[in-house]
Design goal:
The complex is a heterodimer of chains A (337) and B (214). With 337 residues, chain A is α/β, with parallel strands linked by helices. Chain A has one domain (3-11, 20-336): TIM Barrel, CATH 3.20.20.210. Helix content of chain A is 48%, strand content 12%. Chain A has 15 helices and ten strands. In chain A, the strands form two sheets. In chain A, strands 1-10-9-8-7-6-5-2 form an eight-stranded parallel β-sheet, with helices on both faces. In chain A, strands 3-4 form a two-stranded antiparallel sheet. In chain A, helix 10 links the parallel strand 6 and strand 7. Chain B is of the alpha/beta class and 214 residues long. Chain B folds into two domains: 1-82, Orthogonal Bundle (Methyltransferase, Methionine Synthase (B12-binding Domains), Chain A, domain 1); 88-214, Rossmann fold (3-Layer(aba) Sandwich), CATH 3.40.50. In chain B, strands 2-1-3-4-5 form a five-stranded parallel β-sheet, with helices on both faces. In chain B, strand 4 (173-177), helix 8 and strand 5 (193-194) form a beta-alpha-beta unit. The chains are: A alpha/beta (337), B alpha/beta (214). The A-B interface holds A 81, 83, 86, 89, 152-153, 156-157, 159-160, 201-205, 208, 237-239, 241-242, 259-260, 280-282, 285-286, 318-320 and B 16, 56-63, 65-66, 69, 99, 101-102, 104, 107, 150-152, 154, 179-180, 183-184, 188.
Chain lengths: 337, 214
């Protein structure tokens, strides 16, 4: 089985030759190659080269054309600050001056900001790796994109002070997400992961997720499926148990579970959805291979009968992680078969 | 002792109704209540009720921010030139360290601590360690609260305690929290306490401050 077949089988709860293992290696690929993070996130060819090199070194099942959480907002007019060897941050939000989101217009993924660089990365990765590795793009969830256009605090207050304006902004954000997601699939991605940290129950109540985000996520996933996405992967960090029951309705087929989520409980709440997770991210920095191996084996044992599982970290593997810890996670699936 | 006159203020804060909370505070002041009494019996009581709702599984920023916004407006009304240090439980420094430009977690901690009766000195985000230590020398806080969203600042967090020690500020406790830092243990971070949430940090401070106002 190649990685695409293996992952597809896990998503369908079918038999696999081994459990897929996907290390959420984004900026770590730059660290590994000795490339500054601020260069990595701006140059598609560099990003692709680092991802391929990391994939060859570790042998996991997916590569990521993930830059950072500011690609869309920068393409729509937000001003970023690039700092040496760090991910960029938003210095001035596109809608900070009270502008209406309709004034921004949909960004053209072929031209706006770093979007074309990300598309370039996806094209290179797919040409070089074919189906040997799952080629994963990245879009933000509608609420997270809204927060990246307006600032999280302002966006949260908007939910209470002016819900119709927030809904309008989120509808607009959903259109941006769909347009960028389609472009990523056309450029070569097997799927874009939908990264939606602001929709975590650590930030908003589950009722907010249900009323505001769920319908728009469903719209996004329907569009991605129609465009040929291999699967619908939703990545929300933090204590997500309260919103997991809504995932099936959103069309989620791979649900990321962070370290703080009880995996057995998640498996019960999502009986037909593939889970990915959930080794603590910091363990890849502070821990050791024996600890990773033990945690990985424990997860593999717990979910062996169930299937529908991708061994992974709970969130991004930090750039400064120890390579031997990532290798230990990959080795764990090979050892257990 | 509970003060029944405070119930409307508490309800308004918990509802996140800013205007109503300030209006209730005005009403209490007109009725002769002292600001410190309103803080202890009204604002702190509201934060305690919010705390009880916010367990690890049911904690969300939106609810805290809405109540926090109301708290900040009430405090601004009660203390237009800032809270009188002598009326607080203690002083706490809060910061996000150099390299970390995310300050939402720090701001939430600040709101919770102010609502909990502490005088807070905000050293801002991306704060260099020398600036933090200098502020500690000036304000002699009970504790320093560090919020961190990214793991790469952990080496800097580890230095805080020793930097304070060098300036003979060994009595100042260091607490850490935020998405990245709460994954680690106090030993790993060389701090006195790792808070699971802003309220967890407040509980710790209340324990070491003795829970009483200065």
């Amino acid at each position: 089985m190649n990685s695409v077949q293996r992952t597809a089988a896990a998503v369908a709860f079918q038999e696999t030759d081994r459990v897929p293992v996907i290390a959420q290696v984004f900026g770590h690929a730059a660290t590994l190659a000795g490339v500054a993070l601020d260069d990595y996130v701006r140059h598609g060819e560099t990003l692709a080269a680092c991802q391929v090199a990391a994939w060859r070194r570790y042998g996991y099942d997916a590569v990521f054309a993930v830059m950072d959480a500011s690609v869309e907002t920068e393409a729509m007019g937000s001003l970023l600050r690039y700092r040496p060897n760090q991910y960029p941050v938003v210095e001035r939000y596109a809608l900070a001056d009270g502008r209406d989101c309709r004034e921004l217009g949909l960004p053209d993924p072929q031209q706006a900001g770093r979007m074309p660089e990300m598309l370039k990365t996806l094209g290179i990765l797919r040409r070089e790796l074919g189906d040997e590795a799952l080629v994963v793009g990245c879009v933000l969830g509608p609420f997270t994109l809204a927060a990246q256009l307006l600032g999280l605090e302002t966006t949260l207050y908007l939910a209470i002070d002016d819900p119709p304006r927030l809904e309008q902004l989120m509808d607009f954000a959903a259109q941006v997400v769909i347009s960028f997601g389609r472009a990523q699939l056309q450029a070569g991605a097997h799927l874009p992961v939908v990264f939606d940290p602001a929709a975590s129950p650590a930030v908003v109540p589950a009722s907010f997720f249900r009323e505001f985000e769920l319908p728009r996520l469903a719209q996004v996933f329907r569009a991605l499926t129609a465009e040929g996405a291999a699967a619908n992967w939703l990545h929300i960090a933090g204590p997500v148990a309260a919103i997991l029951p809504y995932y099936a309705k959103a069309g989620v087929q791979i649900a990321n579970v962070d370290y703080c989520v009880n995996v057995a409980e998640a498996a019960k709440l999502l009986p037909t959805t593939c889970l990915d997770g959930n080794i603590k991210s910091l363990t890849f920095v502070e821990g050791n291979p024996a600890g990773i191996e033990s945690e990985a084996q424990s997860l593999l044992r717990m979910l062996r009968q169930r299937g529908g599982f991708v061994l992974s970290s709970g969130c991004e593997i930090p750039p400064e992680s120890r390579p031997e810890n990532i290798a230990a996670m990959v080795d764990a699936v090979r050892a257990s078969g | 002792m509970n003060d029944s006159r405070m119930s409307s203020l508490i309800a308004a804060i918990l509802d996140g109704d800013c205007a109503e909370a300030v209006s209730q505070a005005e009403h209490l002041v007109r009725g002769g209540a002292r600001p410190q009494h309103i803080v202890i019996q009204g604002v702190e009581a509201a934060m305690t009720a919010l705390d009880a709702k916010c367990t690890v599984q049911h904690f969300n920023l939106l609810e805290i921010m809405l109540a926090g916004r109301a708290v900040m407006e009430v405090m601004k009304f009660l203390y237009p030139t800032g809270m009188v240090t002598a009326e607080s439980k203690a002083t706490v420094l809060v910061a996000s360290l150099e390299g970390d430009v995310h300050d939402l977690g720090k701001n939430i901690l600040k709101i919770v601590l102010i609502g909990g009766g502490y005088h807070v000195v905000d050293c801002g985000k991306d704060c260099p360690l020398p600036k933090l230590v200098e502020a500690a020398e000036t304000s002699r806080p009970l504790a320093v609260g560090i919020s961190g969203l990214i793991t790469s600042i952990i080496p800097s967090v580890r230095q805080v305690k020793d930097a304070l020690l060098l300036r003979k500020l060994e009595r100042v406790k260091v607490i850490a929290g935020g998405a990245a830092l709460k994954q680690a243990s106090p030993g790993e971070l060389n701090v006195d306490f790792v808070a699971e949430s802003a309220f967890d940090g407040l509980h710790y401070l209340d324990r070491i401050a003795g829970g009483t106002h200065e």
